[in-house]
Amino acid sequence: MSSAASSPAVLSTSAALKSSAPFEKAARNASVLARSSAAFVAEVKSDLDGGPSAEEAKSFQLLGQRARPRKKIEYAPIRKATYLKPPGSCQTRWPETSISVEIACCVDCTIAILDPTLTVTQPRTITALTGIDALAHAIETFVTNRRNPISITLSREAWRLLAGNFARVLDAPDDLEARAGMQLGACFAGMAIENSMLGATHALANPLTADYGIVHGQAIGSMLSHVIRFNAVECASLYHDLLETTAGTAGFPCPQDGFEGLADFVDQLVVKAGLHLKLSDCGVEATQLTKLAGDAAAQWTGNFNPRKVDAPTLQSIYEQAF
């Protein structure tokens, strides 16, 4: 999505969130449940000795059928997935296997319907991993070199919802209002990505997943606070501006604490979520940091970081997180 005209109306089933600015009018006026004109490509990638089950393949086939006008399912026997992905794509991995699925799509949807009741039975680990990733989306999109009035508005609201509800859903997973806040915040953060992209946190995280199989949310959790401190050399005022969004609200970092307060807040949430802060605790080897940094420097998202990055600077961030 590159303009307001292409952004969907967002309907949350939580009554308290339906009026969340600036989407109240769009949600109120929405009358069509779904309409999409999509180009959809799904690639199922696996090791030479395995692949997804027939039922899993059917589920992706169904996704392809719903995303017109074309669909494609491919099985590619490869040893390791590539994480150099185009915008609008995502990657997932079957637990305890080497099988990964990459879905690249360009979808023009009218409405996104968010139902928090669908997330209540989600395991705590999944809540933690997806929650910290969504929070990173809100923070990174707010400071990218492609930020704009649309992405800034989306990032602010995403930050308010995600930072304000993440700890709550970890403590009270049955709290539907907190679940709805996380769900809507994650949606807004994703819309912000389509308008401004991401930054060095994701560039650093992807090689950790590719080389060590570290789950994406964990990789993000280990890197995010270090990237905030690194970027603050050039955009400390932007982080302060983000914190002003929730100034005076209990549970949020204070604007006067600046980027250090934001970085500490992120680390506290990572620990509360039961995730690792140190790369060494994730099984990463110090001898591989140079190689990882080279791979991170080739990541597309690094181009949008507010402070320029290259292999040496990315290695220094890895070293701080190690």
What does this protein look like?
This protein has 322 residues and is an alpha/beta fold. 50% of the residues lie in helices and 13% in strands. It has helices at 24-29, 54-66, 124-143, 149-171, 176-196, 200-212, 216-244, 258-272, 289-297, 311-321, and strands spanning 9-12, 36-46, 69-70, 73-77, 89-93, 100-109, 111-114. Strands 2, 3, 4, 5 and 6 form a 5-stranded mixed beta sheet that branches. Strands 1-7 form a two-stranded parallel sheet. Residues 1-7 and 13-107 have low confidence and may be disordered.
Short overview:
By secondary structure, this protein is an alpha/beta fold. The protein has 10 helices and 7 strands. α2 links the parallel β2 and β3.
Helix content: 40-55%
Order of helices and strands: EHEHEEEEEHHHHHHHH
- Low-confidence segments, ≥5 residues, pLDDT <50? 1-7, 13-107
Principal-axes geometry comes out as globular
Q: How would you state the average pLDDT, rounded? A: 76
By DSSP (H or I, 4+ residues per run), the number of helices equals 10
Secondary structural class: alpha/beta
- Report the portion of residues in β strands: 5-15%
Q: What can be said about the biggest beta sheet?
A: 5 strands, mixed
Total number of strands: 7
N→C terminal distance: 36 Å
